[in-house]
Amino acid sequence: MKSKTIQLAAFLLFFTVSLAAQTNEEQYAKALKFKTAYNYKEALPLYQALLKADSNNVNYLHGASYCYTKYSYYYLPEAEKMKYYNTAGYLARKAIKIIETSADAHCVYAMALGRIYENASSKVKIANSKVIKSEVDRAIQLNPKLAGAYHILGRWHRTIAGFNSFEKIMINSFFGGVPPGGTYEDAIKSFMTAISIEPKFMLHQFELAETYHEMGTDIEAKLWLQKTLEITPANEDDIKAKKDCETLLKKIN
Question: Looking at the domain 39-116, which fold is it?
Answer without folding.
Answer: 1.25.40
